[in-house]
Design brief:
single chain; mainly alpha; 70% helix
Length: 113
């Protein structure tokens, strides 16, 4: 989870790049744009000033988006916008998969299709 939290700026940058890419389907772009807005917005479900829990909602949204993005979007396209190495993306992907396991696969499929 620490890897995902540390990579949050990279995740936002990658999502922002993918959201404007002409190859990505419109539904996925809308989901990614909504995620970026949520992650950069000061308004959260759980306020950030609450210790530990404050960042949990941001972390969960990032995990869902990263897991969905890597499951339903071409990995080469994701790597095009990922500012780090492919290995760092894999570390983040493993962390995201653990957190996103709480979200039904059907919901992730609906978001990214």
């Amino acid at each position: 989870m620490k890897a995902l939290l540390r990579a949050l700026p990279d995740v936002v940058r990658t999502i922002a790049g993918l959201a404007v890419d002409p190859v990505l389907p419109k539904a996925a772009k809308i989901a990614l744009a909504a995620a970026v807005l949520y992650l950069v917005s000061p308004v959260d479900l759980i306020p950030d000033f609450i210790p530990v829990l404050g960042y949990f909602d941001d972390l969960l949204v990032a995990a869902i988006v990263v897991d969905g993005m890597l499951s339903y979007v071409n990995r080469g396209l994701v790597l095009k916008y990922w500012p780090g190495s492919p290995e760092s993306l894999e570390r983040v992907a493993r962390s995201a998969r653990v957190l996103a396991a709480w979200v039904p696969r059907r919901l992730k499929l609906k978001i990214f299709s």
